[in-house]
Amino acid sequence: MTSRQYEEFLKIREKFRMKVDEYRDNYPGFAKDILKRYDQKESDIRAFVYNEKLDYLGKDDSIKYIWVTDNPGFNESKQNKYAVGISGKTGKNFMEENGFVNDFDREVIVLNKSFVHTKVTSELGKFDLYRDILMENQKFMGELACDLQRVFKCDMWILGTSNLNKIFKSFKDTIEANKEFDNIYFYYHFSQGQFKKAYNREKNKLISENPKEICKNIGIENRNKLFKG
């Protein structure tokens, strides 16, 4: 990172950390309802999850991609880190093995569309009492992702498209307003082989062995489907 990029990154990172702390302080009832749903104690998992992996990034690191997945699952909540489950590890291996990055943890910033924990993403839609909080939360995360993209001038990968018109509509609207929209690409999750299936289909269609070309085409095609004008 340049000195300016690092300074901006530190400000954005702290803004994120403070927002999570704000939720923990201001919405204890929401946190209690989340933990109660899964019969968990606050000492075991977190209802609102910051990504501690951001704290490991330093001035000598070079950010090449921003990833945005859905919301923290059980492993993310327990470890206070994003993309540490099977899907995240599969994606990390894909990026490193196909020449996108040399060291995923040093070259990719991982965010979520929401930092509110649920075991299954669809359960975010069941908290009707906290709907306004969830919408505000998504807007914040969308703006955070856009701010980081502005700093690093890198591609953003949005992983998970099925809920963008429903549960994550607020996030989608925020992302669409980003000036760097042409550098935002949309993909299926790495879980259950969804990403790989789409990748293989596109690879056969293009008759290409270039992973970056294949992924770019997929990302643009999905973006065009999601934003039809």
Helix tally equals 9
Q: Tell me the strand percentage band.
A: 5-15%
Integer tally of domains: 1
Task: Report helical residue fraction.
Answer: 40-55%
Give the CA-based shape: globular
- Which class best fits the helix and strand makeup? alpha/beta
CATH class: Alpha Beta
Spatial strand arrangement across the major sheet: 2-1-3-4
Q: pLDDT under 50 segments (min length 5)?
A: none
Q: Architecture, according to CATH?
A: 3-Layer(aba) Sandwich
From N to C, what is the helix and strand string?
HHEHHHEHEHEHH
Q: What's the gist of this structure?
A:
50% of the residues lie in helices and 8% in strands. It contains nine helices and four strands. This is Uracil-DNA glycosylase-like domain-containing protein.
Walk me through this protein's architecture.
By secondary structure, the chain is an alpha/beta fold. The chain has a single domain, classed as Uracil-DNA Glycosylase, subunit E (3-Layer(aba) Sandwich), CATH 3.40.470. Helices cover 50% and strands 8% of the residues. The chain is built from nine helices and four strands, in the order ααβαααβαβαβαα. A four-stranded parallel β-sheet has the order 2-1-3-4. β3, α7 and β4 form a beta-alpha-beta unit. The chain is globular and about 55 Å long. The termini are far apart. It comes from Ilyobacter polytropus (strain ATCC 51220 / DSM 2926 / LMG 16218 / CuHBu1). This is Uracil-DNA glycosylase-like domain-containing protein.
